[in-house]
Amino acid sequence: MKVLVGWCDPTCEAKWKEVDLSYRDIPLQSWLGDHCFIKKHIDSDLIPLWIKGPLDIWHKILKQVKTERNARILRWPVYDRDFLPARMDKRFTQWSQKGITSYWKITKNNELKSFKQLQDNYNLEKCDFFRYLQLRHYYNKSIKYLEEDEAGILKILLDSSNGRPPKKTISKLYACLQTERKCNKTYIKTKWEKEAKITINEEVWLNICNSVIHMSSSGLWKEFSWKCLVRFFVTPNIKSKYCNDTEKAKCWRNSGNVSAGHFHIFWECIKIAPYWSEVIKEINTKMDLNLCCDFTVVFLGNLPRN
Ligand SMILES: [Zn+2]
Q: What pLDDT is recorded for position 27?
């Protein structure tokens, strides 16, 4: 995705970008609004693999987040295959040379700018007025956002096209993808509640998630802690499902449990109980605390605020 941001961003200067953009007469940025066109090229051998890669990813994103329709704003009238007048009338090529490239460039607040504005900015002539009407008609029918998306991934591409790529591009892109996939993490909470037979209210869950981030300055331990919390590790239970073999669901410490999930492996198992009581005793002595041997506090990290 970072490659796409680079294609769009006029301030991005790089050798790889020159190479990428030199492959076809039609600017790659203008392809991004037309998923059928992208699909055609992904399936053909007209472009090299390193261009197909990013395009393929973008094509999948368009499908996943249903931004297909909104992404049309990235098209350029002159190359827009659905805008018939541009295919018959060479004058639109001149428009593009004069600077009328993409739709986003000639719109404001989801409306096509007036003919007067375009005339002033791009030096259009009176005889262009009919073409303007054709364009406006098509824009209102097929390009205009049905629903504006203020923070989506498309916004990143549009900002980049305007020469304002986001700082920390990858983090921003990632955050967008997560939000648009509506990745809700409460199912993790529900699984803990079910296994440990407890209730974790929203406030406690938030505290738990926060303490994973703030517990240590060490990236390694933060990651480990996060993996424990989100149930990353493969337990006997999971293994038995993979292998379709109930034998494999037995606790690997031979504690007698025949269906060992996360709660059992990390907390409940009788073989690990002495470990926890020792650890808690040490923490309480060294830090002068009075933590009780509670799963939510000690394992999940619902630590007292102070
Ligand atoms: Zn066990």
A: 86
DSSP string over 73-93? GGS-GGG-TT-HHHHH-THHH
**Do the beta carbons of residue 180 and residue 65 sit within 8 Å?**
yes
| Residues 34, 59: Cα–Cα separation, whole Å | 9
Q: Using alpha carbons, select from 170, 98, 91 the residue that is nearest to residue 135.
A: 91
Q: Tell me how far the alpha carbon of residue 91 lies from the centroid of ligand 1, in angstroms.
A: 77
CA of 212 to the centre of ligand 1 (A): 25
CA of 200 to the centre of ligand 1 (A): 24
CB atoms within 10 A of CB 283: 13
- Ligand 1 geometric centre to CA of 20 (Å): 56
Q: How far is the CA of 132 from the centre of ligand 1 (A)?
A: 74
Give the integer Cα–Cα distance in Å for 34 and 32.
6
Structure confidence by residue, pLDDT tens digits, 121-163:
998 899 999 999 999 999 999 988 777 666 688 889 999 999 9
- pLDDT classification of 66: cutoffs 50, 70, 90: low
Half-sphere exposure of 230 (CA within 13 A, CB side): 12
What tens digit of pLDDT does each residue of 200-257 get? 999 999 999 988 888 889 999 999 999 999 999 999 999 999 999 999 999 999 999 9
Compute, in angstroms, the gap from residue 260 CA to the centroid of ligand 1.
Answer: 7
Distance in Å, CA 249 to ligand 1 centroid: 11
Instruction: Say whether pTM exceeds 0.90.
Output: no
Residue type, 48: P
Mean of per-residue pLDDT scores for the chain: 89
- What 3-state class would DSSP assign to 115? helix
